[in-house]
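2 proteins. here.
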Amino acid sequence: MNETPKPKIHEWIEETERLEVPTKAPPPREYDVKLVAFIDILGVSDLAKDDNRAEEVLTIMSQVRTYVAAGCHELVLKGELDYIQIGDGFVIVAGLRQINRLCNILSSIQWRTLIESRTLLRGVITAGRVQGSMTEGFFIGPAVINAYKLERDNAIFPRIIYMDEIENYLSKKSIKFGHIIEDQDRIKYLDFIGHNRDSKKLSAKTLDHLLTTQGIRKKLETEYQQFVVDNDAENIKKAQKCGWMISKFADCGVRLT
């Protein structure tokens, strides 16, 4: 029985040398210009320091993740929006044409976080250069870095602030979301209370009843009274956040204190 002769080592080397090796590297990726939102759950960091409240933290995180997933689902399927979770925050990136949908989504997330989880949320929506995706598990770029800083330094209260940078890329005529208002410090934000009142056709009386039955009235009043009398700087900030929320409901005809 004749055996096929095995190639000698020099023949292997010669064969390898004959293989074509790519000479050009793939073109470098560039940043895309998109809408970038960063939202952060308030109070979770303090709760996480208490070993006895781990279940509460995990429940809140799971609930808010569900709100984000539900709100973003349709646009994710269409390939028009991506998001990732980073700790107790979420980065949401969408195409410029999705400005009105994204404002609706953010307002819905903030509403559900308050009404269903009795938790406050703040954030920012801006636009600029960004790269990354859900699949890659990260977003990076000047707009992402800017969003982090704006949320930390400018949002301050339980509000999602709206940055005018968006209008560098979009005509004002294309921004039809009707609940962007200017606060007392002249910073614009998404009026999630007004948006949800209108979309759900809630009267002041119905809203008052909802806040009472969901325990939100008691929570805001209790925490405000607890923190406002404390001289600790961090607790004063917490009182200011509750006070801001209480004042926004008062603007809607619902007095909580």
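next one coming up
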Amino acid sequence: MVICIEVEQRTKSELDQLLKVGGYKDYSQVVAIAISNQVLLQRQVAATGNSLVVAGGDASPQDKGNFQPRLDEASAKQDTSEATATSIPAIFLLPTQKLTNCEAAPLPNDVFVPGHDVPVDRWIFGQHNKILPVKASCRALAALCRDARGIPLKAAADIAAQAAKLGDYLRQTDTSHLVSRDEALSLAFPSTGSEAGDKARLRFANQFVASANKQGQLSGLPVDLKLVNYISAKESRLSLTAAGWQFAAMPNPILDRSAGDAVAKFSDAEIDFLVSHIRDNVPVEDSAYRAVIRALNKGANTPETLDDYLTQFVPNRTDKPFTRAFLTTQRSGVISRMSDLGMLTRRREGIKVTYVTTERAMEYFSTSSHATAGVSND
């Protein structure tokens, strides 16, 4: 349905500002959410008799630029539970004892050799797109495995339940720090107050802890990054790899400091460790990073042009060709993970998004396994 309306220039400017800082894809999404919010507010006022006061035109330009709108009615229903989310569940806190004596699982097997191009369909699944949940899961696994030789796979559900409480806490932090949607800490975390809570927790368990298919093969972003695996081939019990134990034991600015502190997702030490680990041990992710950096260096720095560039890494399949939507999902996932690791930023101008590499990305590109393997990065 198309509805045309007339707005003042000021309203148009405010819409542009919302697109820039709120992470909306277009004007239609902004207007649709605004209408839903207004209906929700009127229902609330009618039901309770209470009024709601919102800061008006006297707000500073900085305040307006950092305005974080409520995304949907489900978010509003979370307010009560989130209001009490004042602490991080203990399972995610920095271990109080050293983890050096804990048994490490072996690195998952890999069919790819470091330094060689990997087709897009074999990249890490695009929906495995955030790394802070991986940090949380490594902490939880460290806590559960510290006094036991691995844990059963079904324990992933218990970790996901605790992750919902952590999600409430992180949403509170996002709100108090006016974090933009792109950089929100709570993205990918479930919540305790959501109507789709069971599905969200199951999705978190599968994507950010671990799951297994009928053949017993593990999947999930911690497994993809070779931080989690079975403790041995004969036992279907999860544990952290040596890299996973090391990552879990590293202090984190979110999980180990109060909500009043800075909201950087990772310390420089954590990022340096993960980037080095990926370069040396995770050829699938290494190849994806190099492909994206190479594309950005050649000017393919918008979602559309980057997708065009990456088509060369999509294998031909005559029976069931890969769709453009699949390519977009894969690209979106690797962009999000690289952003979490400080390798690129998103620059927004209205509805236009441009990807910009950082010094960390260029350093990675120049020292990657691809270069050390004697293959040109150009």
